Prior knowledge:
By secondary structure, this protein is α+β, with helices and mostly antiparallel strands. Helices cover 24% and strands 23% of the residues. The protein is built from ten helices and 24 strands. Helix 4 crosses helix 5 (198-217) and helix 6 (288-298) runs parallel beside helix 7 (345-363). The relative contact order is 0.14.
Amino acid sequence: MESFFAFFRRHKIISGILILILLFVGYLGYRSIGPWRFYRADLIKSPATTGMKPEMLRVGVAKRDITPDLSLYDKFIDKNGNNKYEPAKGDYFEDTNGNGKVDAVWIAGFGNTRPAQGVHDPLWARAIAFENNGVRVVMVSLDSIGMFHEKIIGIRKMLDPALKIDHLMVSCLHDHEAPDTMGIWSVGLEKPYYRFDQKYMDFVQKAVVDAATDAVNNLQPAEAQLAEVPVGPDGFMDDSRKPLVYDNIIRCARFMKAGTNDTIGTMVVWGNHPETLGGDNPLLTSDFSHYWREGVENGVKEPNGAPGLGGMCLYFQGMVGGLMTQLHTTVIDRNTGQEYREDTFEKAQALGENLAIETLKGLRSDKVIKMTGSEVAVAAKSIFVRPKPLFSFAGFIGLVHPGWYWGKAKSEVDAFRIGDIEMLTVPGELYPEIAEGGIETPAGQDFAISPVEVPPLRSQMQGKITMIMGLANDEIGYIIPKSQWDTKRPYAYGRDKDPQYGEENSFGPEAAPAIHAGALAVLKELHQTLGK
């Protein structure tokens, strides 16, 4: 019988093909593993686990500028002035470093043809640290479109163990006027090809680490005031997909130096896409978020303004699925009564300042809640979500959301208790009905089922104020109730030509049930460890 090796020597072509196949399969296997294969975020820490009783809460804040230096990139020549890169129409880049490639900052959202041409306002990584009863956590808000889970894990691995941070949470604002940090809007199909800017990603990750480090080093005794401020939806946001369910409450927490009225930091949580500038804007900006934070910190000018609170304002994105946007909303100027509907900085400023004024009013009203609790606790849980086939393949080959777990992708949900505040994080753009109630089973739905994501998440939360933060520790797109999933005819809500927008930018119909179940489980673990 011919030996195995003799066969390969005699059939060189066949053996070569087989070797190439084996190498390719091995390469795919390596790519499918993902960078943090065995990482799990399964964590519970509270007074019960540390054996330490809560004393006075300690809070620290810090920030880092994450605006890219555009002088380090190629100069864009926009021949027709439409703020889009269109080589067929004569647009080109001056190859300043002579590498034969396009080096540009690609703005995320509204297509992959928007190179940044300037900076309107700085982009930030803003961190807040909490410590008590032997538990230390840090939360970071990023002026970014989003960040996949493996990048968050990478940031955690970069933290100095001497900081003794038990858990780091990173939430992105889903800013559609910021650089691409997901690799989706940095793909060019025409020569010269352009690509994802890994150097900027490295810069952002280090900025998060630095901000978190400084926030911990700035920890100091603190007291807090809480407020829930209703806004809109008219004049503030629009739900562009049925059913119309809003979370139109700004949830606020102001932390002050103990025994004083000096603000350390103010957290605000509210759901709305930062995309007021639309798809034609060539300038980097945090959109209405910039004016909101500036207004809370430094005040809004008179007439009809308000003095600021000082300190640092941190805006954490809420629930933006559905789709929560101001693109179709008319925003009113507080002084002139002028109506802004088009995509302009004037509209972004009017919206941001209106939000700031309402926030300042709420935190100065007689309904403000003085926080009496001070305990710090955290429960974090890795979850596995089955994506639709296209996303599953992208994860398998390591292109998008790398890491393939036998047909599933790894993500995470967290729950925090900071005194009288309870917080829940979700890894994407949650449809408000999953948290607030109101999931429907419309005629034409793809799955003939009753609502799966029940009970509503907020109904299972405790505390004097509850905050649900989206795009936290991951970005898997729209989290759509399975009973509202709609890609096949007949379409729901009587639509004839096409379904509502959303499913194309979702992980799939199994994402919402998995995240809802994981959220309920992590809340249960938090409550159990707190004896609630």
